[in-house]
Amino acid sequence: MDRVKLFNDFLSQKGLKSTSQRKLILETFLESASHYSTEELYLKLRKEHPRIGYATVHRTLKLFAECGIAAERNFGDGQTRFESVHADEHHDHLVCTKCGLIIEFEDQKIEELQKLVASQHNFKIENHRLELYGLCKHCRSPK
Amino acid sequence: MDRVKLFNDFLSQKGLKSTSQRKLILETFLESASHYSTEELYLKLRKEHPRIGYATVHRTLKLFAECGIAAERNFGDGQTRFESVHADEHHDHLVCTKCGLIIEFEDQKIEELQKLVASQHNFKIENHRLELYGLCKHCRSPK
DNA sequence: ATCTTTCTGAAAATCGTTTTCAATATCTTC
DNA sequence: GAAGATATTGAAAACGATTTTCAGAAAGAT
Description:
The structure is a homodimer.
Chain A: H1 3-13, H2 20-31, E1 36-37, H3 38-48, H4 54-67, E2 70-74, E3 80-84, E4 92-96, E5 102-105, H5 108-120, E6 124-135, H6 137-140
Helix pairs in contact in A: 2-4, 3-4
Chain A binds a DNA duplex through residues 15-22, 37-39, 51-56, 58-59, 62, 78-80.
């Protein structure tokens, strides 16, 4: 709940201003657990607030990413998506190649094996991404 | 070594033609184990063959991907890269965020755990991507 | 060799993203 | 609460990577 506060602190710390658009965008972004592209969030916002601009939505999403509220993701469809980041929790994705459904998961064993691989190659991991692409429950069944 | 044959078979099967440019691009692509972007391969080719066109390189790389000789990858730098695919072998990547070094690795245990996760969510995996981002051996050390 | 079809390379178009700019809103400070 | 300084907004233009168009060239079939 204090992601709003977190964002406001971030803004004032950087000498940025708290505007009605930024409040609105954050609110809408947090409302749904979806993985928004700029376009998608822009279209959703425009229904209720026709005067909002695409650039503003995009710039604000970038700010979310910068302050850690959101993370930029790319699932190979040519659109950058922003997902809400919850504290230190880390998760990966199952992506349905047919309907676009995105499911999040976490697997501690996989994480550990990743660390092992990295150390074998003398790498210091900063972050990672793991995505499994395939057919979801619904798209698997014939009809 | 029969990736050349594989490509030729693919071409004739689709009613496409075997041209000097396609031969050249495939040869150069296979020569190095690098992860080429269209731009990089284009620049490399142009040194020896100044008349080759960017579009031709790009179209040919797409053909490689289509016939399974290459795979498209995206490491988050805004450029699509094409990497040589060796038969059924599957591998993932360690990417150095400082110098751009890309190391390939394979880990059977991780693959198995992925399958497990997928089945828990009723997914049928078609493919996956796993990338570990961090500092490589050289970039870790102070100087 | 001729004919049909595909291919090539240059340039233009496209797509998502980012920047520019004049008008507007926010945040001081008085 | 008004004035001034600074950041923000939205529309449009710019941008970079990728894709398409098109007329001339090359490949493969007849």
